[in-house]
Amino acid sequence: MRRITRIATVGIASAALALSATACGGKKSSDASASPSESGQKSAAIAYDIGGRGDQSFNDAAYAGLKKAETDLKIKGAEAEPTDGEGEADKVQRLTELARKGNNPVIGVGFAYAPAIKKVAPKFPDTTFGIIDDTSVTGANIANLVFNEEQGSYLAGVAAAKASKTGTVGFIGGVEVPLIKKFEAGFTQGVKDTNPNAKVLSAYLTQPPNFDGFAKPDLGKAAAQGQLDAGGADVIYAAAGLAGSGAIEAASAKGKWAIGVDSDQYNQAGLAKYKDSILTSVTKDVSDSVFNLIKSVEDGKPTTGEIRYGLDKDGVGLADSNPKYKEMTDVIAAVEKAKADIIAKKITVKTAP
Fold this sequence. Notes:
This protein is α/β, with parallel strands linked by helices. The protein has helices at 18-24, 58-73, 88-100, 114-120, 149-163, 178-194, 217-229, 244-253, 286-298, 323-326, 329-343; strands at 4-6, 43-47, 76-80, 106-108, 129-132, 142-147, 168-175, 199-206, 235-239, 257-262, 278-284, 305-309, 316-318. Strand 2 (43-47), helix 2 (58-73) and strand 3 form a beta-alpha-beta unit. Helix 3 packs across helix 4 (114-120), helix 5 packs antiparallel against helix 11 (329-343) and helix 7 crosses helix 8 (244-253). The chain is built from eleven helices and 13 strands. The strands form two sheets. Strands 1-3-2-4-5-6-12 form a seven-stranded parallel beta sheet, with helices on both faces. It has a six-stranded mixed beta sheet with strand order 8-7-9-10-11-13, with helices on both faces. The longest helix has 17 residues, at 178-194.
């Protein structure tokens, strides 16, 4: 049976989190006292970002990569959850424990792990450390798994502008950090290139060091309601992790469109109630990035340095799972043209608003 080691659990008191609890129901815990290496079976670990597994988005995409590795590579998988309001020392301890137990690679899901990996990686030179969404920390045993989020967001902007009937669309960022500004920049550029007269409403849920904007659905819901009611938006794109589920809920309640992020949120079980309102999702192939790094270690050729995923490698993209989206032939045609132009470098997408 698959063995998953869990280090800590995150508690988020929000009624909206009930939808992700459904998706989390299949998680299993086991005694962490024995190291995976003691059984002789190889193991890999991921340490989750804010919101943890069950966010229907970023963390769940990373988990999908670990699960695929368990199935295809016959390894053991270890997971470590964040704690509410944790500091750098907590992340250092988490990564250290995962490495000491013999997991290889150890992957930090999110840029917040950069300072911790910088401290821990040199102490375990024979262990490969991966970090998603960060290039600031480098080393001989560090793999930087990064994405051209602005490119996928540009396509979302094209789709939003074409689908909007009011000419006003909304962007909601979880926390105002450079990474999320890439989403905003690409989305806004895509909207404006498609309809110069369109209006883009932008809002951020929290400012660092407060990262609740990635974790609390009620914040996303309130921001979306404001854009829908007062702003007149009829398409909402939220790059906010678990908080984005609240924005999707708000759009659904008003009969408006939502655009998901990181995972194909139309197919997320925890969002099934709102799926008909999810026009499309900007996808990041976090799953494959995790699987590929684990496989490189299993093959004895660990990948390190910057590993970038863009439109040209289908590392980012736009999901077409919603049948209603597939019926919008004019939207699909515009998105496909924009994708081709970006790959051909006819369009350069901005990385900052």
